Amino acid sequence: MEQSLYPLKFLPLFKDKIWGGSKIKDIIGIDYSPLERCGELWVLSSIEGEETVVENGFLAECTLPDVIDMYTDELMGEKCYNEFGENFPLLFKIIDAKEKLSVQVHPNDRLAQQKGMEYGKTEMWYIMQADQGAEIISGFNKDMTKAETINRLRDNTIEEVLNVDKTEKGDLFYIPAGRIHTIGSGVMLAEIQQSSDATYRVYDWDRKDEKGNPRRLHIQEALEALDLRAVVEGKSAYDYMLNKTSELVSTPYFTTNVMHITETIEKDYLQLDSFVVYLCVEGGGIIHALGHKIPIIMGEAVLIPAIAEKTIIEPLGLVSILETYIL
After folding, report:
1. Residue 206: pLDDT above 90?
2. pLDDT confidence of 208, banded at 50, 70, 90?
3. DSSP state at residue 101
């Protein structure tokens, strides 16, 4: 039996959220029944109890941690495997916010580990679709003190000091750990983040859950995590280039680029000691790697093992792909 590693696709996980909508079905075309709504599509995950499962090839039905256990640094890269072991370090999601999410903050690694968690949560958002007038909140619009933050949370005026950006398809937002943020209503985006579900809810617009109760806030934890400095530009700039690679974010946790492709291109990974994840955010195409041809469409990801020295991306029309790895 042939047991060589190959590019992997995974079955998605669907999350019903109080603020979720129907764009994952209506725009992307992915059926999340029996759920009536879907706030999050988890494309690639090794979160305990929420592991995505291989869809294609002889490794089908194996979880992502199972595959890492079998192939170690062939999949992850030597440096990544030595640092993370069988814990895949990133989480990939599609988020559909019919209603705005809670105002929240994530801890950094140091604080998370003090609280008994493995990792903090730094993330980035790439806007896949946005209704007219849709907004993203990222950071405070002025330097804050802890006292003012507490007072504004008490009297429900925190919204007045939040940095608000209008958003549209193709926008980029980098959300480092410690930055207060939320997604406004009418936004569908791709989220790439550290493999952590650590979230401290700061303010929830006086929203009630389905039982009529206010959702739990995490004020004390959030105050420990918050970066109180003003954010001048919540939205990040980048160069849009056709048939080339544009860097979006380069952090100690991950590097993500975007590729808008209308003609076949080749990617060289000979010098890269890391897995690569392709997350398709528009259109579709075929990924050629390690002797395999793997189709990819909007809302899907392909995990390229670290042993792949190159890939060829063959678009079917225009395809837009987020390319992510760890340096």
Report:
1. no
2. confident
3. P
Res 215 pLDDT > 90: no
The pLDDT of residue 2 is above 70: no
Domain CATH for 307: 2.60.120.10
Shared domain for 203 and 270, answered yes or no, is no
Q: Report how many helices (DSSP H) and strands (DSSP E) the chain contains, helices first.
A: 6, 23
CA atoms within 13 A on the CB side of 110: 3
* Whether residue 108 sits in one domain with residue 22: yes
**Residue 274 domain-assigned?**
yes
Annotated active-site residue in 201, 215, 216, 229? 201
Q: Which long-range contacts (CB under 8 A, 24 or more apart) does 211-217 make?
A: 215/18, 215/102
Same domain, 159 and 266: no
Shared domain check, 152 and 72 = yes
| Alpha carbon 156 to chain centroid, angstroms | 29
Find the domain containing 275 and state its range. 245-325
pLDDT tier for residue 267 given thresholds of 50, 70 and 90: very high
Assess whether pLDDT exceeds 50 at residue 237.
yes
Q: What is the pLDDT of residue 93?
A: 98
CA atoms within 13 A on the CB side of 29: 7
Least confident of 213-217, 303-307, 310-314: 213-217
Across the chain, mean pLDDT equals 95
Q: Which residue has the tokens 């009529």?
A: 212
In residues, how long is the chain? 327
- Phi-psi domain of 43 (left: phi exceeds 0; alpha: psi -120 through 50; beta: other): alpha
Which structure tokens are listed for 305?
């093992």
pLDDT tens profile 109-133: 999 999 988 899 999 999 999 999 9
If one counts the domains in the chain, the total is 2
Q: What is the DSSP letter of 230?
A: B
**Is 201 an active-site residue?**
yes
Residues 205 and 255 in one domain: no
Is 53 within the bounds of a domain? yes
Which residues neighbour 84 within 8 Å (Cβ) at sequence distance 6 or greater?
76
